[in-house]
């Protein structure tokens, strides 16, 4: 895989945390590439470094050393403000807990990333995104009027509305029953197949990981493909 094809290019990344007098080496020289249009699962047991790697991929944390290029941009040494801009432009997040505002309609939730980015025609794009995930008829509903699976679909619409380089989903089916979880994974697969979106699923569930085209296993702060 070449740099020109890679939406994510991570080279020799380490992450060390200081806890009092102790140093914790969460990542120990991770190198990996994810191609544009791939659907990849990142798996690993608790304490493996999986969450640290996810936070670095999501520009929520910085590596201690090494290089990370996201969509051709070297984000390894960016400051907090620059990282916030990159997150808004390049990354769509989907979390286990949905992270929706309780008294806000689905349409307004999906408009939010475009408000921060200063994009025009927000209502149209938000409605298009909701329609894409099968919720065009629920645009004016609030979270308490939606099922868990529908709330997660709102979160997916919000994640994709700015046309990010990647969608990063952290345990996206963790709070859902199996039928709703299957619906969410099928939406991801459709977005990947029909829209060419790059999807990264962080999960401990082998059944979810099996839906991806490739699995990246994290163990003891290192990657085994």
Describe this structure in words.
By secondary structure, the chain is of the alpha/beta class. It has one domain: Rossmann fold (3-Layer(aba) Sandwich), CATH 3.40.50.300. 34% of the residues lie in helices and 29% in strands. The protein contains seven helices and ten strands. The strands form two sheets. Strands 6-7-8-3-9-10 form a six-stranded mixed sheet, sandwiched between helices. The protein has a four-stranded antiparallel sheet with strand order 2-1-4-5, covered by helices on one side. Strand 7 (166-170), helix 6 (178-195) and strand 8 (198-202) form a beta-alpha-beta unit. Helix 3 (106-117) crosses helix 4 (122-132), helix 3 (106-117) runs parallel beside helix 5 and helix 5 packs parallel to helix 6. The longest helix has 18 residues, at 178-195. It is globular and about 50 Å long. The chain starts with 5 loop residues before the first strand and ends with a strand. 40% of the residues are buried.
């Amino acid at each position: 895989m070449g740099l020109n094809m890679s939406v994510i290019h991570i080279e020799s990344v380490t992450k060390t945390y200081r806890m009092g007098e102790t140093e914790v080496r969460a990542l120990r020289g991770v190198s990996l590439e994810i191609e544009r249009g791939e659907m990849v699962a990142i798996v690993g047991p608790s304490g493996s470094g999986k969450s640290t790697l996810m936070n670095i991929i999501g520009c929520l944390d910085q590596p201690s050393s090494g290089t990370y290029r996201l969509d051709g941009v070297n984000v390894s040494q960016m400051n907090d403000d620059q990282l916030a801009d990159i997150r808004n432009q390049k990354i769509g997040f989907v979390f286990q807990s949905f992270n929706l505002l309780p008294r806000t309609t689905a349409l307004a939730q999906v408009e939010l990333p475009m408000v921060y980015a200063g994009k025009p025609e927000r209502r149209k794009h938000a409605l298009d995104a909701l329609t894409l995930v099968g919720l065009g008829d629920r645009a004016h509903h609030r979270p308490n009027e939606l099922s868990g699976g529908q709330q997660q679909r709102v979160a997916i619409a919000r994640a994709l509305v700015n046309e990010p380089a990647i969608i990063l989903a952290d345990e996206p089916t963790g709070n859902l029953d199996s039928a709703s979880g299957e619906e969410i994974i099928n939406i991801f697969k459709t977005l990947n197949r029909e829209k060419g979106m790059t999807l990264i699923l962080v999960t401990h569930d082998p059944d979810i990981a099996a839906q991806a085209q490739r699995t990246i296993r994290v163990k003891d702060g290192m990657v085994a493909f």
